[in-house]
Write a structure and sequence with these properties.
By secondary structure, the protein is α+β, with helices and mostly antiparallel strands. The protein folds into 2 domains: 173 residues, no CATH class; 110 residues, no CATH class. It is built from 7 helices and 10 strands. α1 crosses α3.
Amino acid sequence: MRSSVIYELKARSDLWTGDCRGKPDRLVTTGLLGSIRWWFEVVVRGLGGMVCDPSGPGSCPDDSGRRCPTCEFFGCTGWARKFRFDVLDQHDMPQQIKKDNSFRFSFMPLRPIQPKEWALLDLTLRLIADYGAIGGKTVLKPSDEQNRQNEPHHKDYGLIQIERRPSDIQSFSVQMLEDYAARPCWRRVNQAGFAWASLANFWCVNGKYLARQNESFSSFNHLIGRPQPKRQSSGNDSWIAGRRPDRAHKVDAESKKVFSFKDPARTFGFVNGKDVTFDTMKTKLKCAWSDLADHEVKEGKAILKELLSGAAS
């Protein structure tokens, strides 16, 4: 069995993990691991695989003991995770991660891990670093209002960059990873409620952000279809905007599908291929940024090919 797989990283913003009371003063690795797992699911779905909702009633295993590819790697009821996960600073200590801090992700195998599983993890981490975000509070929205832009609820969280990655992760083609994700041994899953969270539906614009400009206008709210003035009720939010919880009517919260960060500037999100397509999203983005060129909006399939073509770099 191989030794620990180490990724050396740098925080481009603070990372929020928080404890059980939501306090950010100590590192809680389960929050980061949960985020890595979520992005791993996005990758597997983008490769044509099926992934369960680990928090829902249909979580793995099924009655026959079969698991989805994500649960095979990250664990589920009756099946332990295949690795130990640690987050360490330069002195091998777990510390809360602040902007510009250097730190490491360590994955120590606890049982045999297949080369394609390592490749999927590597792909996931590079997707997060180059196009996504990790940890909590990534849903916060930037502000350009001079007296509000530095308030906690407008801060950026979760942006990282990979300084050094393992050199011995085996490279695979898109087709080989698609074949792995679709192996007949995996559990068949009804993904109706969360099929949108797939790399096939993902898009990203690096170098641009959405924000509230003033009391009356927010380019972020304009794009997702929420009312512009503050303190105005949003009523029935759009699919892109997500859904706020309503306990009185037993309505659960649902995440927005667009995320934006100011420093460094990055905006990413998802389409659903129905009422929200890549073309409709590009039209919305061009309303926010009149100088946006089509090639600046990178779609998931192109990102997948790019990341895999550079897997050996």
